[in-house]
Amino acid sequence: MKTAHIKKHTISDIIEILGENPQYDGLYIHISKNKFKESPISYPFRSDNFTFICISNGELNIQLNLLKYSVKKNEAIVVVPNSVVQVLEISSELEIMTISFSLDFLLKNAFNKTDLDALNFLMTKNISKLILDSQEIAVVKNISHLIKTKLNDKLLFKNEIILHGFNLLMYELASIYKKQINTSEQSFSRQEELTLRFFRILEDNFKSERSVNFYADILCVTPGHLSKVLKEVAGKTASQLIDDVVIMEACILLNNPSITIAQIANELQFSDQSFFGKYFKNQIGISPSKYRNLKS
Fold first, then answer.
1. Do the Cβ atoms of 148 and 140 come closer than 8 Å?
2. What is the pLDDT of residues 21-77, one digit of tens each?
3. Where are the beta strands (DSSP E) in the chain?
4. Which residues does residue 130 pair with via DSSP β-bridges, in sequence order?
5. Kind and range of the H or E element at 11?
6. DSSP assigned state of 66
7. Which CATH number is 7-186's, of 3.20.20.300, 2.60.120.280, 3.90.70.10, 1.10.150.120?
8. Rounded to an integer, what distance in angstroms lies between the CA atom of residue 252 and that of residue 246?
9. pTM for the model
10. Are 88 and 63 in contact (CB under 8 A)?
11. φ, ψ for residue 63 (rounded to 5)?
12. How many angstroms separate the CA atoms of 265 and 253, rounded?
């Protein structure tokens, strides 16, 4: 199995890739219709910010943390920081709106504790797709358009207008999310619920536990049943998904030249650097040091 180099992209990186101009420190709104023939970012990357993706027409197929989602007309999804994102396919008639903002922007511009309490839906590890009715999507689009038109204006009270508009948008999204989340969770199939539980446990334990039996025992299923369900829902077996997450993290750490390979092996709790090197080469096809040299 060959795992791609996982880059980390900030809002500034995304703006540069799309060939657009910066709008506001820590905030970026993109609205387009039939702009892309194919995805401008074809490789998996780790997001450094929150992004709310809303589809007005067409379809976006996206993979978030190894789970695949098909986001269609009048549907939306929230990408949280440190998610591994890959755009798999976009339709030619795609109409898309994205609102990206950093955690620093969110914390600086939430006016009070009530704001932060309302926005706790952004902190969930359980990525859920939202379905918006015609009125909801019209409100979200109108607020987003208003904020976007003010980003480059030189108005008196420009900052206040933008920040109040942003908070209004977040409250609207929080209201939609909280209205749907209980129903959405109840509509998961048993297989999907097991998959979500597996990913939650994997996220917390992948550095110390790479045995399928460990996860199967916690989930009270046999290793065979777990792998069968994951293969049906996520397209890979339990062992493949465990390896994917470990290698993604290893690649990210290897991109930091200040961390030695021995330190990375220790961080990922391998017995020694040699064992880590063999594991990495078995997955990637090259040694950690060669991988680092190729990416430097």
1. no
2. 888 889 999 998 878 778 888 888 888 888 999 999 999 999 887 778 999 999 999
3. 7-9, 27-33, 45-47, 50-57, 59-64, 67-72, 75-79, 84-90, 95-101, 129-131
4. 76
5. helix 11-18
6. T
7. 2.60.120.280
8. 10
9. 0.66
10. yes
11. -115, 125
12. 10
